[in-house]
């Protein structure tokens, strides 16, 4: 019997952030597994359905691509997308149609509840209603870390027995080809700390500006990369400092060069469902200083130095240690590379295939092997 699953391609119409990257990397990993005839792909057809005007960024070998007519945004997702679904639906980027019960939806975090000041009032209100409704109606709820899973259960979005952890991967960062622009080349250096994130309050960029002023006598400067989606986020930090370079959005190749040629990545967030930049930095051989909150210790393990997101002194001490202690720096880089295999797009795609097989009433090949 043929099995049919559709992937919710609404993310193709959105700006690229960690959530949208997750969607695309899972799609491409599923495409590769289908082409190889991997576990749990027998008799399986997967279709990526997107709003009008969208196209996948590269060719797909085995996943079919279609556009489903009928508007855009949430209206397309709730009304047009269900008409394109045959069988099950995989929604990878926080939202999905409430009328499709045979659905796996990945809800990445509960930041709208944990950090409400970072989001517009309309966005918070929508997610407060939509996420629990999805958690109730969907067959399974994925999320990206054990921390995020605990928060989904805590806020009543889904029960523990419905949630599974399907983390981000690192392989995309290995495909980047380091290439500086004039601005990133001027910003990079052994005394430069890279910061990736918007000015939404939970990203804690105010601390970076305070830290920059404190570290100006140390000769340390900061390169801040990232933008802000005004439809989603509330405006946060507006501070400035002479030793902070505002790069805005940079390309993946520019980021790879910046990470390669700088002292470290600083990641001071108060909360994250996963926190992809530290993993990307590890993949590019850049040591990490991270906040000691939320999912960050789960993701970074012993490969990062940690500091309280409220302590400028802790951050200054950690950054100076990495800059001035070559042995510590090389140890962090080595431990980061050792940690990478724990976070793989391919392994996460295989996990989705197992869940899809279970929903279809088929014991996954991994489950049969374990039973034997």
From TrEMBL:
Which InterPro entries does this entry report, sorted A to Z? Glyco_trans_1 (IPR001296)
Q: Which UniProt key words apply to this protein?
A: Transferase
State the protein's name.
Answer: Glycosyl transferase
| Source domain of life | Bacteria
Q: Name one GO biological process term.
A: lipopolysaccharide biosynthetic process
GO terms of molecular function:
glycosyltransferase activity
Q: What residue ranges carry the coiled-coil annotation?
A: none
